[in-house]
Input
Amino acid sequence: MTLEPNIPGAAPLVRLTGITKKFGAVTVLRDVQFECRAHEVHVLAGENGAGKSTLVKILAGLYNDFEGIREINGRVAVIHQELSLIEAMSVADNIFLGRTPARCGFVRQAQQEEAARHWVGQLGLEIDVRQPVENFPVAVRQLIEIAKALSQDARVIVMDEPTSALNAPEVTRLFGLIQSLKERGCAIIYITHKMEEIERIADRITVLRDGQWVGSAPAAELPPAKLIQWMVGRELGEQFPRRAPPLGKERLRLENFSVPPSVKPISFSVRAGEVVGLGGLQGSGASELFFGLFGACGSRTEGTVQLDGETVRFVSPPQAIASGVGLLTNDRKATGLVLSLSVTANATLAGLRQLSPLGWRSPARERAAAEKMTGPMRLRAASLDMEVGALSGGNQQKVALAKWWQTRPRLLLLDEPTRGIDVGAKREIYQLMDEWSAQGIAILLITSEMPELLTLSDRIIVLHRGRVTAELTRAQATPEIVLAAAMGQASA
Amino acid sequence: MNPFTRGKSFLGSAVGRALIALVLVFIAGVIFNADGAFYKIGTHRDTLRQASVYGILACGMTLVIISGGIDLAVGSVVALTAVCAAKMAIHWNWPAWEAVPATLAVGAACGLAAGLVTAVWRVQPFIATLAMMVFARGLAKYASGGMKVSPAIQNADGTYRYVEVPPLFRAIDHRILGDNLSIVTVIFVACAALSWIALSKHRWGRYLYAIGGNEEAARLSGVPVISAKTFAYVASGLLAAVAGLCQAAQEQQGDPEAGAGYELTAIAMVVIGGTNLMGGRGGIGLTLLGVLTIGYLDKILSINAVPEAGRLMLSGIIIVAAVLTQRRSRT
Output
């Protein structure tokens, strides 16, 4: 194999120019440019929601309705976080899925296995290609996926957080492989939230922020501090004036609380009336922490939880609800609401026990409760009897929040309370959080929007891969410090 | 624009759709009147009586389907409980106040077992109730010794002695209002009313809708998912026992082969009524319309002497047509 000289001016394998992509009225990418050459590891960096995944989908040809120019020389293979192998099929079948060597419709088994062994061997992997994929650990599956990409003669390989499920030696092995792919003339586009990995393998870095191209630079010219500045350096925009109430006594205390395997033992406390923001990027474990606190992980949690000084252990959501804990999940359609039920039914679902103590439902009481809860939220619904699925995103979110108001919570766990809703609805939800904390409710907040995290939180705890990497007061917190901690750098 | 796709209009609603199907069947009945048989009150009494056992099953099936499940066991449970009822009432001479609760308990136990397997161990409802369907059929054959349990009792020497049909069976197989209404139909209406109350007036009914609509959201809202799902299967088993009692009373015997395929008719009734097989939407009112639609369709075909082969094929076509129109309303 002859190595192509790595001339900076050589034609790139991938060149995207002036890419703009809209979903309905929302612009997720605006005038983005990106190029990647052979023999290069190009890291695509940006916070959650910066537009990385959308860009990758355009690269891979999954989205074709965009503005701008896409030039790709060679095949693109994407290795996702969630692997796309068929677990019950053999390694060889997976590698040649959709292009099985066959004669008259019959699979040429021996030929396929031979070829599969060749590609797997190229990666220094010695496995029985006749075994089903499910027999191998995630690290090997990832390599199988790479072998599949190589066998398709892919020259551009996109890896989306490939190390999220790997241990240290496996990561080292993967990086060795990336090195050899590079030498073969492949272009690697690498997405990660880990600063350490960027420092280890990046040749060039492109930063996206809020769907916009911030810049591209050789890795050597972009030290961590500058990279983080590129990633967060936005105007915080119109600030929401949080009126922090005087803090009450300690409401929640965690001591070495863990939710294996996502959340390692962590300890912190929240006082009544306080809003504590949990910062972190994908895989930080914050959502899993909420599930664990809420009893939704059953008895998988370890450590102690104290609520108002009383040690509690919730192994099911009804216990948590009865003790005054509410959980707003981060996906209202999948886990937050029953879209086929009415506004009233959804808003009263968590508090139905109190509303019908003997089991017999009282439509009038439910209606009154729903009106009382949704009234202050300025819910825009034609009727409280309409199906929640017919409401707009912001109004659905208000219904999901209203549900918890009914249960008179002491502690609210809010996971992405403003995801996918318009600015007006966002402000209204900020307002509600303010009012609730003023009434002494303790709020734990997860948000991937940095301005939201910084303006709403009285205190910020940053998680990285299930561990606390920083605990900051409002005065200490800056976007740079939070992001550096979220990417696994010990706070300065 | 197709007027049937308009969600708001009455004809576009689920009830409207189910009514259209029923009205069409009635019109067919008036047109193919078979020498005025459709205008005789006896025809309607018999239609309702014949539909009642299926209708009772369909009520329980509605609860299960709304929770996102399915209950294939009810046909076998009918056989098992019919055998039990006949054994207790005929052979053992138990009075009604002992035989009826015992029979109901057997049905509820079957539902409980299937419900726990699917709710606690998370076995798919199709599989869990399929297993119960096979098991209950076996149990029915075991309990009856493989023979019909009837007033003709075999003696040790091979001869038969005949006992009287127990008063319980005669009471259920009775007609009231000047011979114009079967008691079985009254029982069906009572079962429908109870199911309606459970679904619409009780907290647990709301739980079933929530679980069928989005089980994870329901769980995270504090809905006792396991208990509520199990409750649906217990209710279905209980109603299957009621149907088994009616079946035994009407046949004056407990047949271990009875009820085969009844679960499919019950499912068809629920689906034609417009209750969504995916769960979360539907109701007993819709199921009642479905029961009447299939019941009358069957009757009209039979009074016009359409052979069973044709009846079955037509029923198949109508189920598909009903489900296709149902799907239009989904947004």
Remarks:
- The domain at 14-232 of chain A is CATH 3.40.50.300 (Rossmann fold).
- The first helix of chain A runs from residue 52 to 59.
- Residues 166 and 172 of chain A are 10 Å apart (CA to CA).
- Confidence is low (pLDDT under 50) at residues 1-9 of chain A.
